[in-house]
Write a structure and sequence with these properties.
N-utilizing Substance Protein B Homolog, Chain A, 7 helices, globular
Length: 148
């Protein structure tokens, strides 16, 4: 099984991020309360193979910190946050949350996962935009880790 020594199932975490990206996309477009989106995903998605606790942490983390996350992104983007493609915006917010509030997740993992979900769900070259923004953001938020 794909696990770290601490007992974290990395594959389940990846699935949680994929589901979280889809849920953030739905939340951004619908304007629904995050708990309603989470409930919908619990019933509609195959959540037993994902890390449900991590999925909910990501979603509530983005919801409660969206203004701070967007403020972190602004110096590194070339347009208003609202003008970014909804999939790319969801991936950027998700990754920014992990970079800022989840130091237990290495920045390289955060960036790689964001690139992979954007490749899977986003526009053809959206992942290159996400990569560029997150690389600059990681240099700012994870200075010590990125140097090492």
């Amino acid at each position: 099984m794909n696990q770290r020594p601490e007992g974290i199932d990395l594959a389940a975490r990846s699935r949680a991020r994929r589901r979280a990206l889809q849920a953030l996309y739905a939340w951004q477009l619908s304007g629904s309360h995050m708990n309603a989106v989470i409930d919908q995903f619990r019933h509609e998605q195959d959540m037993e193979v994902a890390d449900l606790e991590y999925f909910e942490d990501l979603l509530h983390g983005v919801e409660h910190n969206v203004d701070a996350l967007d403020a972190c992104l602004r110096p590194h983007i070339d347009r208003e946050v609202a003008q970014i493609d909804p999939i790319e915006r969801a991936a950027l917010r998700l990754a920014t949350y992990e970079l800022k509030f989840r130091p237990d997740v290495p920045y390289r993992v955060v960036i790689n996962e964001a690139i992979e979900v954007t490749k899977r769900f986003g526009a053809d070259h959206g992942h290159t935009y996400v990569n560029g923004v997150l690389d600059k953001l990681a240099a700012e938020l994870r200075t010590v880790e990125k140097r090492g």
